[in-house]
Design brief:
50% helix, alpha/beta, 14 helices, 5-stranded mixed sheet
Length: 357
């Protein structure tokens, strides 16, 4: 016996449910009494929660523009949808996320380790900033006109965070002294490689190669130790590689090459490695700390996809709504909830919420 299976979608027809609300006037007092609106049905004509969830899915999760989202719904289901309908569905969905956002914020603040990052995000014709804070279970995205501590304070995570914050070496993160800081080594490797690629004839790039090799060897040693079930690295091995990196950075920081933009940048990088080596190597002294900040970069990468596919957001409010729904999408995915189910719950007015502990 041979089998042949065909997976297909049956013809989709939109179902219209009509509610007839009867009104009666009292013959004695003249009072007019009408049946109450059914739950969630307040307008003469509106789209149901599954249709609204699909609109939000195409616009926020798949990065279509309002125009293309409306066109896709119209062509797929044969019902007219305007750009205004897309905007309204998105705005209503984001408006129901206040409780979700606050609960996720509290859980991230209470976490032992958080990834944070930021990236430019055009909104209202100007450059705004998308900020992210995430753990393995929760994601919180915020859009703010500013990049620095004003925006981070408004996001409400770092001001009260006392765990380990993983980030790049951007200075405003260091102003939150209650947290323990771990710097991203993927960023560091890229900076070291940029120096190596130039390869000045005077050999001033050699320190970067020594630091890069020692860092990668240390990462390999940590990965092997974790795979073997160990909870710490051999002290001698850690000390050897730490000294190699520190010596390389110390030599480069003291370099007396002629002052110039490129030479100054290389010396600044060497000084940062020398002064922040403990934060860079925290992954080797605490196995709960990752080598890089890739989870945070993955959280904000979708902003670049959004701009590439459909351009920036028309307004700052729209960008903030986009970030709120993306937080919901990312968090429900981390909890294994089917996306369309999660969005349908949201457009029903009953979004998924973290379980209380």
């Amino acid at each position: 016996m041979q089998r042949r299976q065909v997976f297909d979608i049956p013809p989709i027809n939109v179902r219209v449910t009509e509610h007839q609300l009867v009104a009666k006037r009292c013959g004695s007092c003249g009072t007019l009494t009408r049946a109450p609106d059914p739950d969630g049905v307040a307008a003469p004509v509106q789209y149901g929660p599954r249709m609204a969830a699909l609109i939000v899915y195409l616009y926020v999760a798949q990065f279509l523009s309002k125009k293309r989202t409306a066109q896709a719904i119209t062509e797929l289901f044969g019902i007219p949808v305007s750009e205004g309908t897309v905007a309204t569905a998105t705005s209503r969905a984001a408006g129901d996320l206040a409780t979700f956002t606050e609960q996720v914020r509290r859980r991230i603040v209470q976490a032992d380790l958080v990834h944070v990052d930021e990236t430019g995000f055009r909104a209202g014709g100007r450059l705004a900033w998308l900020h992210s804070a995430s753990t393995g279970r929760y994601s919180l995205l915020n859009v703010h006109p500013k990049r620095g501590t004003e925006a981070m304070n408004a996001a409400g995570v770092l001001p009260g965070f006392t765990g380990i914050a993983v980030h790049d070496a951007w200075a405003p993160y260091d102003t939150y002294t209650a947290a323990t800081h771990a710097l991203c080594n993927a960023h560091l490797l890229r900076e070291l490689q940029a120096i190596i690629d130039i390869r000045p004839e005077d050999g001033s790039w050699c320190w970067a190669e020594q630091a890069r090799r020692a860092l990668l060897e240390l990462k390999t040693a940590v990965d092997q130790a974790k795979a073997a079930g160990q909870v710490s690295l051999d002290a001698a091995l850690l000390d050897r590689h730490t000294r190699l990196i520190r010596h390389a950075a110390t030599i480069a920081a003291a370099d007396h090459a002629p002052t110039g933009t490129l030479a100054d940048k290389h010396r600044a990088l060497a000084r940062r490695i020398r002064d922040r080596l403990e934060d860079y190597l925290r992954f080797a002294t605490d196995f709960t700390v990752p080598f890089d900040n890739n989870p945070a970069e993955q959280e904000i990468r979708m902003a670049k996809v959004r701009q590439k596919v459909s351009g920036g957001m028309r307004t700052l409010t729209g960008a903030q709504q986009f970030a709120a729904i993306r937080s919901y999408i990312a968090t429900t995915r981390k909890h294994g909830i089917a996306l369309l189910d999660a969005l349908t719950r949201l457009t029903t007015g009953q979004p998924w919420l973290p379980q209380t502990t």
